[in-house]
From TrEMBL:
Species assigned in the record: Mycolicibacterium lutetiense
Listed name of the protein: Anaerobic selenocysteine-containing dehydrogenase
Pfam families in the cross-refs: Molybdop_Fe4S4 (PF04879), Molybdopterin (PF00384), Molydop_binding (PF01568)
InterPro entries, alphabetized: Asp_de-COase-like_dom_sf (IPR009010), MoPterin_dinucl-bd_dom (IPR006657), Mopterin_OxRdtase (IPR006656), Mopterin_OxRdtase_4Fe-4S_dom (IPR006963), Prok_Mopterin_Oxidored (IPR050612)
Family matches, as SMART domains: Molybdop_Fe4S4
Biological classification of the source: Bacteria, Bacillati, Actinomycetota, Actinomycetes, Mycobacteriales
């Protein structure tokens, strides 16, 4: 018998965006513990509870570890050959009868953390043909932000982030990094970095309807839900009317005079009834942003998912620009990769995406696509509405749209009418419970990785790769391996499929997307440029010589507009008719009669969207879902702390216990999302914790989907709250 082997392997967490360094304890080939990596240059011994608890996910007895086939008696284990052959036959037949328009793919959030998954999803969803439907969690998360960049800089990939390490005034809107650990901003120990700002004499101002965990540690400026556009238009109005326009703005952008006209009708007195913010506070904020040499406004999830998310993201950047804070140290900056020639690639892609934005519309609802993705709020209708390009086959990878998009019940109904539905997941969740097959995937510690998505959002430019820490659990395979195997078995002849099939015939399961990732590392800042830069980085060197990762530059390079703006002359473009139209809708916004309150979301330290409610460590103390509302709103409704309330919107209702606080804007109720595990999914602990799907209160009507980016409307939902029973 071989001796008991215990290894300590450096790797990194890929649940959320800081990608904290981890040390995995591997005993006899089994992952038995995770602890924070003290030698990681940035996370330096920090990891949150979710990261530590992930060992319980890897070894979860409820995990899917063999291919599952749905039968009349529930799911049954089948072999990979049986599953993939049947899926391939059925998919080929659907393609023969209906073409690529009958195929849909939903790519969920964890896919963004896996290069294998990204390449697999793209190869299938786009490779099967130009009529296919592609959805992702982006339309509940980032599409509005990306589209604002497409308008301003010509490319959705040019997303500015606050220069956290050097700023002296950080204005945060709609973000709660003390709980979320930061988003569109990869900054391990983000809370410490924010306290550093205060320590060096600077300020952090948090605009949020709730005195969030972040607001509580810094300066809170309460704002009514979904009113950020009004506030930002007023900040701009003050900057223009007080002559605070920075000269740099003139040199960077076209359309300043146009912008001045758009905001002229929004002095702070006019917007106060919407925002609840006193005019003097707005003026002080505008002056501080103009007068502080190193200042940045940053907005995130809360500002992306209102009724005008694209407009809000656009206005945040406009404020940064006008105040002279764009692309300067300590301001709002572009964390570029420094790949030679990238500029020309981005220009071509930017131009093509701008063209297709004008031309392509969704079949149902006539909404635009952002980075090639349709609004997931409309997925159910794309399945249920007959006609050309009706979805008959749906693949769901790393997603749980039944709990994450508006009106999950509608999606559940639609899913049952599909001819083929396939899930790729660690669990049977509320969505893939409707699948014909659920295919077992490797968890993040069972695959090699490099987090391509997050490289250009790093507050400190940094590179780390990992090899798989343990072998796949059970029969799990990577998404790439599963999908290329499936493509090999299908008889569909598209250019992408033919190439992949040929490669796969030669290489079998050795066919990997890793060379693409390696190329990116080698070409980017710090890379070996294929031998041109001695001692530079590549995947292998990172893995062998820098197992804890390595910082490639102390700060983000600034003065890069020429690289990132893809418009001719590299000038930021402010004037857009779509933006005028959106500003116009602000004037027409009305309340919903009978629904005087507004609902917002609330992330929790021990949840990750819908999928970590099965880890015992995270569910200790019989944790349940609970809402938060203001004591005064409760008093007038005879609601007592800790009791059940019914929350009703024009679209649905849920019952949930509520706690009371003074730390929320009156008229607001906050409800965490991702709950509502009702036993359809296979996760036993999550099912016991129950809760409700808050997205039953959201609308999937195309008229309620944000018009420019197709964003799901998830904040500022009109509701009424009553005692239950
Ligand atoms: N613990 C934990 N961490 C997570 C996740 C998780 O589920 N749990 N999810 C991950 C994911 S997928 C993402 S995208 C990120 C998101 O991370 P963040 O972008 O930081 O988003 P949230 O934590 O949702 O915080 C949004 C804040 O916006 C406020 N808000 C709501 N509506 C409005 C509004 O109209 N205006 C303004 N100004 N504020 C508003 C809310 O009160 C809340 O405090 O978090 C990631 N990290
Ligand atoms: N009301 C409301 N709704 C929201 C939000 C909100 O703030 N409020 N936030 C929105 C946001 S920001 C997001 S990102 C979405 C998230 O929405 P989704 O991405 O649709 O769903 P998740 O809950 O993240 O589910 C992720 C699934 O991936 C699986 N998984 C985990 N790791 C892997 C892996 O490596 N491979 C594979 N194949 N599967 C894996 C998990 O088991 C889980 O089933 O929710 C959105 N919905
Ligand atoms: S903060 Fe995010 S990346 Fe860091 S350990 Fe927690 S879950 Fe993992
Ligand atoms: Mo997200």
């Amino acid at each position: 018998m071989s001796p008991h082997a215990v290894e300590q392997k450096p790797t990194f967490c890929r649940i959320c965006e800081p990608l904290c360094g981890m040390i995995a304890t591997v005993e006899d080939g089994r992952l038995t513990a995770l602890r924070p990596d003290k030698d990681h240059p940035l996370s330096a011994g920090f990891a949150c509870q979710k990261g530590i608890a992930f060992a319980e996910v890897v070894n979860d007895p409820d995990r899917v570890t063999t291919p599952l086939k749905r039968t009349d008696n529930g799911f049954e284990a089948v072999s990979w050959d049986e599953a993939l052959d049947d899926i391939a036959t059925r998919a080929t037949e659907i393609h023969r009868r209906h073409g690529s328009g009958a195929f849909g793919w939903y790519m969920g959030n964890p896919a963004a953390f896996s290069y294998s998954h990204l390449f697999a999803a793209m190869s299938f969803a786009k490779g099967i043909g130009g009529d296919s439907h592609f959805f992702s969690s982006s339309s509940q998360d980032t599409s509005s932000r990306l589209l604002a960049s497409q308008f301003l800089y010509g490319s959705p990939m040019a997303v500015p982030i606050p220069d956290l390490i050097r700023t002296d005034l950080l204005v945060m809107m709609g973000a709660n990094p003390v709980v979320s650990h930061g988003s569109f901003l990869t900054a391990p120990r983000i809370k410490d970095r924010m306290h550093d700002i205060v320590k060096r004499g600077g300020r952090v101002v948090v605009l949020d309807p709730r005195r969030s965990e972040t607001a509580a540690q810094f300066e809170w400026l309460g704002i009514a839900p979904d009113a950020d556009a009004y506030l930002l238009l007023s900040v701009l109005q003050v900057l223009f009317s007080e002559g605070l326009i920075d000269r740099r703005a003139q040199s960077q952008a076209d359309g300043l005079e146009w912008l001045r006209r758009q905001c002229a009708q929004f002095p702070p007195e006019v917007t106060q009834p919407h925002t609840g913010i006193a005019p003097e506070a707005v003026r002080a904020l505008a002056r501080d942003l103009a007068d502080t040499p190193r200042a940045a406004v940053y907005g995130r999830l809360g500002t992306c998912v209102g009724r005008n998310g694209t407009l809000v993201a656009y206005l945040i950047d406009a404020v940064n620009l006008v105040a002279g804070n764009l692309d300067v140290p300590g301001g709002s900056v572009f964390s570029t990769l420094g790949i030679p020639g990238q500029k020309w690639g981005s220009r071509l892609m930017g131009a093509s995406l701008r063209r297709s934005y004008r031309k392509k519309r969704t079949r149902v609802g006539g909404l635009p696509l952002v980075i090639g993705a349709e609004p997931a709020a409309l997925m159910a209708k794309e399945i249920a509405t007959s006609g050309n390009r009706q979805i008959k086959a749906l693949f769901v990878g790393a997603g749980n749209p039944v709990l994450s998009v508006p009106n999950g019940a509608e999606l559940e109904d639609a899913a049952e009418s599909l001819e083929l539905m396939v899930g790729l997941d660690l669990y049977v969740n509320e969505t893939n419970a409707h699948c014909d097959y659920v295919l077992p995937v490797t968890s993040m510690y069972e695959r090699d990785d490099f987090a391509i998505t997050f490289q250009q959002f790093q507050a400190t430019p940094f590179r780390q790769v990992t090899e798989a820490v343990v072998d796949p659990v059970g029969q799990a395979r990577t998404e790439w391996d599963i999908i290329t195997d499936l493509i090999e078995r299908m008889k569909v002849r598209t250019p992408v499929f033919l190439v992949l099939r040929r490669l796969r015939k030669g290489l079998g399961r050795r066919l990997s997307a890793r060379p693409m990732v390696d190329m990116m590392i080698r070409m980017a800042d710090g890379g070996d440029r294929f031998g041109l830069r001695r001692g530079g980085l590549n995947f292998r060197r990172l893995s062998r010589e820098h197992p804890h990762g390595t910082v490639v530059a102390p700060n983000i390079r600034t003065g890069v507009l020429d690289e990132v703006v893809t418009y001719r002359g590299a000038r930021v473009q402010l004037a857009h008719k779509d933006i005028v139209d959106e500003i116009g809708t602000l004037a027409r916004r009305g309340g919903a009669e009978g629904f005087p309150m507004r609902m917002i979301g609330m992330r929790e330290p021990r949840s990750e969207n819908s999928w970590m409610h099965n880890a015992p460590l995270l569910m200790r103390g019989d944790r349940i879902q609970s809402a938060v509302m203001h004591v005064d709103d409760a008093a007038v409704r005879a609601i007592e702390a800790g009791t059940q309330v019914v929350v009703r919107s024009p679209y649905g209702k849920v019952a949930i216990p509520v706690s009371l606080t003074h730390d929320i804007m009156p008229g607001t109720i906050a409800v965490p999302h991702g709950w509502g595990h009702r036993g359809t999914g296979g996760w036993r602990i999550a099912n016991r914790a129950g809760g409700v799907n808050v997205n039953q209160l959201m609308s999937s009507d195309p008229a309620d989907v944000e018009a420019l980016a197709g964003m799901a409307w998830l904040t500022g939902i009109p509701v009424e709250v009553e005692p239950a029973g």
